Amino acid sequence: MEFERFDRAALREVVAMSDELGVLSFYVTASPQEESSVRPAWRIRFGNELSSLRERVTADPDRTRRMAVLKRLEELEPDFRQLLDPSESGLGRVMFAPVGDGAVRSFSFQLPVTDQTVMESTAYVRPLVNTVETAPPAGLVVLSRDGLRMIDYRYGLAEDIGRTGFEIPVEEWKQMRGPATAEIARSAATHRDKFERRVEENLTRQLRAAGPATAEEARRRGWQTIVLLGDVQLTEILASAVGGDVIQVDAVVDSLTPAKLAEYVEPQLLAARTRHGVDLVNRAKDAALSGGQGALGLEATLGALNDSRVAQLLLDESREWSGGRTEDGRLYPQDATPEGESQDTLVRDSTMGERMIERALDIDAEVIVLDGEAAENLAEFDGVAAILRW
Q1: Spatial CA neighbour of 26 closest among 103, 156, 101, 123
Q2: Basic and acidic residues bias located where (predicted)?
Q3: DSSP character at residue 221
Q4: In the chain, where does DSSP find H-type helix?
Q5: Beta-carbon contacts of residue 294 (< 8 Å; ≥ 6 apart)
Q6: Is the pLDDT of residue 271 over 70?
Q7: Cβ contact 256:230 at 8 Å
Q8: Dist CA 129 CA 107 (whole Å)
Q9: DSSP for residue 33
């Protein structure tokens, strides 16, 4: 087993995993605060989760499924050892394994996950989505008079992706020796002032020229936010050239590692996430209440998902919903009975959050998990809304 690099494409592939016998989903946080000389607490929790799963499987009256799952769990023992290996990188670790074949998909993050073990007919991805949404893609750009440094930060991992140097042409200065007359001193001062102005003008041009390239990098990498760090005189010039959601941090941090830089700007990124969520909720509200491209509440959102109209699905991180689904996968609120169906033909489901995420990713919609102020603003509408394509 190898931990894969996580991205949206990988998430869609995991969501597509299904198996009539079941898909096993494992979540564990290898917390360094819980390390001990004997056995870390997080390993004990994982062992307890695994024992509980085995007990449930052993009690399954379906012999074929029972034997298949127990055999699969035995086959996964080497993968469990790697998942629990303290020397492996990553705080949060996730693994998905269908019972009926030998496939294993695993990911690690520098973010905690909710420890749990689940077996359903599909991969259980809501805890994964909740985790990665706490640190959506962002760009950190460190500025100095020598150049700029770009860092990609997403899902808890920060990586250097490139540096651009600023070339400041320096004219050769003839050093004056010996005593200078007042006229020569005045001339030298004027020359120095002109030289410094030319340097500043050249630096400004290069910062402005870096704007479109930075904006294109942000678009290509899907950065939700750009954070510019450095002298405010430099960041203001680049910010005006980049546009979009740009945060300026007046700090000289050139020497920090990518991980330390991400830690340094964490408050700004959290605030940006909240602003982004509040803005999306307000857009959905305004659109829905004016009869436009928005849906509010569970019933309206499920209807839009069924019709593949959702562009962005907004979910309260802490809320869960119950409902029903038809044989062809259409989703309905708990008390609804769609035409041609009955309470007997609907499959009752107490994890409609999971089903909504699956449906949204299946139609290539974006899933945004809300907390704090953004979630509060959606509370009167069951904690769910959508921005629609049409």
Answers
A1: 123
A2: 321-330
A3: H
A4: 8-15, 41-58, 63-75, 77-83, 126-132, 182-221, 232-242, 258-264, 266-289, 297-306, 352-362, 372-377
A5: 283, 284, 285, 286, 287, 288, 385, 386, 387, 388
A6: yes
A7: no
A8: 12
A9: G
Q: Give the C-alpha separation, 104 to 79, whole Å.
A: 9
- Read off the amino acid at residue 151: I
pTM, 2 dp: 0.86
Most confident of 5-9, 101-105, 303-307: 303-307
Domain with CATH 3.30.1330.30 in the chain: 276-388
State the fold for domain 138-264: Nucleotidyltransferase; domain 5 (3.30.420)
Homologous superfamily of domain range 276-388: Ribosomal protein L30/S12 (3.30.1330.30)
Residue type at position 70: L
- Torsions phi, psi for 318 (to 5 deg): -100, 0
Q: What ranges in 296-338 are assigned the alpha helix state H?
A: 297-306
Phi and psi based region of residue 61 (left: phi greater than 0; alpha: psi -120 to 50; beta: remaining): alpha
Question: At residue 93, does pLDDT exceed 60?
Answer: yes
Nearest to 333 by CA among 322, 342, 341, 319: 322
pLDDT at 66: 95
Terminal-to-terminal C-alpha distance of the chain: 43
Contact 28, 84 (CB under 8 A): yes
Which tens digit of pLDDT belongs to each residue from 135-176? Answer: 999 999 999 988 999 999 999 899 999 999 988 765 544 444
Contact status, residue 15 vs residue 122, Cβ threshold 8 Å:
yes
Helix (H/G/I), strand (E/B), else coil: 89: coil
Superfamily assignment of 3-132 in CATH?
eRF1 domain 1 (3.30.960.10)
| Residue spans in the chain of domains classed CATH 3.30.960.10 | 3-132
Which amino acid does the sequence have at 198?
A: R
Separation of alpha carbons 219 and 84, rounded Å: 36
